[in-house]
## 1
Amino acid sequence: MTESKLKRALFIDRDGTLIVEPPVDFQVDSLEKLEYVPRVMHNLNFIKSHLDFELVMVTNQDGLGTNSFPTPDFEAPHNKMLRTLEGEGIVFDDIVIDKTFEHENAPTRKPGIALLGKYTSGEYDLAGSFVIGDRITDVLLARNLGAKAIFIADEEQGKVKINEAGLNDVCALITPSWDRISDFLRGGSRTASVKRTTSETDIDIAIDLDGTGACDISTGLGFFDHMLCQIGKHSGMNLTVKVKGDTWVDEHHTIEDTAIAFGNALRIALGDKRGIERYGFVLPMDDCQCTVALDFGGRSWLVWDAEFHREKIGEMPTEMFLHFFKSLSDSARMNLYISARGDNEHHKIEGIFKALARAIKMAIRRDVFTYQLPSTKGVL
């Protein structure tokens, strides 16, 4: 006998998450106030149709049924919302409404879980479930359930709130975008951390392909740091690179081993590559024209068509440029074509790194509504 699979749920807030919360009285108590959060229907339809989550609406409605919030005032827009969502193929498996006031501190009110007993009975995989909402109380609800939270907020402001509340270990994603939520739920976080230690170098690399271009780079080679920052900034990935290398010998080991570790991180973060664009390419920079075409097709190859006439740029030997990209291509298992024309050596190599970043950005772009592998072979 096989064990039955535990069910997963999305516990979704209503006001501010599904529909826009009025800025003054915070009550959607008329049809005139009913407004949907952008892209919510499109993405909930995808989630309902393609993913294995039950949809559970969990909402606090202060004083519902009292003179301050009569039931008919609530039901008119609420029922209209449900009918509209149903017309788009979105039917909630459960709707949980707490009617108490905040000052009552009722255990039924979010972040309390007294009304969610059926989900804590052992039939649900709460560790694989998520609470989606726009308030810290939604993140606290996730903690109380043993689930993870998706916090609908501006990323920078949301990080501050999560840090202040000490909820970093609970919050899996901070985003204002339902497109990003669908992407995350479908494919998970595209991150990787790689540590590579040899007798010559000690390297820690962390990447997030769906980041904001934030970089924290320290290799001991200033110009190399500058080039790696170009990759993070212009690809949109978050990139952390910490290297302790034997630069007293020369720069070779630091540059080569960083390329190997970075390529491994790219390959791991891409996962099964379903839905990605796969290919990418070109960039002008002042006097230079730099072309980088790549293919995350699972096979490594490098074509290098660039000449440099200085021994070094900064502390970085120009002979190491080709070696960096060859090591990167091998470890990331990608085809890489690089061509550069121009007179200024600094501009040429910076243009190449920027073109690589833009090529990566194009190639890793994932269509949230596509499961297809970009290959006729069926594998990459």
## 2
Amino acid sequence: MKAMKYSGQRESIKEFLAGRTDHPTADTVYMNIRKLYPNISLGTVYRNLSLLVSIGEISRISGMDGAERFDPNTEPHYHFVCRECGCVQDIPLKPLKNLDRMAEEAFDGDIEGHTTLFFGTCMECQKKALDKPIAL
């Protein structure tokens, strides 16, 4: 495989994502990278995010709202998606390794891994609902 040419913009995108657990959208990445590179286009951000996903340096998560979110943690782990605000959070649960084997036994093909999204209401939205005055 041909060596990838260095890109300061791509490195800035990786640095922006590093250590984040809020799973930002491409738009959020774009708005923040523009502070360093005012002339960067949204298309350039999308292309770099797609490239980083394809080479396994970040993960892509499709949320309920249709927006793709990006995760610097490429280790197997699970996510929670809030039905109210759309936030995506990591769930600190050990991946179920036998799930891949179980799926492979029930499927004619080669299972390479799995992703799991849990849905519900996050703690922040639950608090907001409790704090909301009841209309009479």
## 3
Amino acid sequence: MVKPQAPPPPPQSQEKKTPHIRPSVQPRIQSGPDPAAKAPRPPQVKEGKGAQAGPKLRPVQLKIDRDNKAHAKQEGQAKVAPADKEKVHVTSGPQAESKSQPKQAPERPAWITPSDKVSPAKDSQFAKAWQTLLASANLPKLATILALVTFLIVFALAPAFRFQNLAGTDLFLHSREDLLQASGLSMGQHFLHSYGGSLHALLTGRYEGAEKKILQAYPELRSLSVYFKFPATLYFEAEERIPLAFLDVNDTYITIDRFGVVTGSYQELPQGLPAIRGIEPVQMRVGESIKTNADEALKSCVAVMAALVEADFESPGGNLLLPQTQEIRSSGYQRILLTFQPEGSANPLRVTCSSTHTLKEDFLWLKKVLDSKVLQDKLPGNLDIYGSQLVFRPYKLNAQGEEESTGQDYVWQDEIFVPQEIAPEEEEPDLVE
């Protein structure tokens, strides 16, 4: 029995396989039995007249990476990656016909070893994020912000910007600690606390609020400036109203400076200082000029008091005039009467002077006279330095305690007192009809 023969298999159609192109710097096309042999590049088909008929070939672009050149040197060829792109024209026929074929996922080249793998995805993402931050950040602006923040921290916490020391002009009646307590400021406080108060104070660096508090507590201050002095110093620049004269008002002594401004009051007269008497105040307030019933006379008395101080300061040797002065009193228009109690004498000396004269020179001369004691045995008496001639007139007290002339005057001539007879008063003739 003849077995039926199976029909011959249908002829298998030969599939056109796309030759595998190994990526490299110069792509190679394998063809023929010997893969190592180079396939000849087919001739380019020209179009136009005289061109041979044939299929049109179009170039295919391959992307070749140039970033991994270091590894390419080790392996003898370059890697392929989608970073840097280079166009390579392939004119093989199968490649031209592969347009309709679906794209396949690129396989990892066989020459990449495990040691060539990139770092983990987490590290690469962090590196990319850090590079992106550095690329997008404005480094000069960031450095400026950091410097500003550092400066503000130092400015707020550094001891050099806090009150650590007190300084200022030397005061006669007040201490710097008293001024600090009255100002409302405190040691260790930042200098910006209570700084300014007005535009002028802000521009001049003063503490206007602290100045007002101090002047309210001590109105006898003539001027005051409080400001910060680097480093860490609170500076008080003040001018006091020095009490120069003491006005006796019902056994209360009102102190006034040389400008007639009230500085305070005392219940007792300080030892060694004279009192002004014979002037009644009308209005008086500390820190303001006093108002009296004889303002011009008070100004003259204060001027006399200032001249006494200047004379003692200029000639400190010998007997000082100010401790010997007991009373200053106005005795008429521009005439001031001073009562002295010379040392070593129980009798007083009264001196009449004028505020229009050069008082300091007159008192320097009087100081020499008292030091020489030429009038010691002639007291009590009145010394007139008001006019152009210096005359001393002794007097004595009668039984009623009234002053009587001794009939003998002394005139200052050639640096001594010369006796001078007093001319008898002429009787006025009777009027005859």
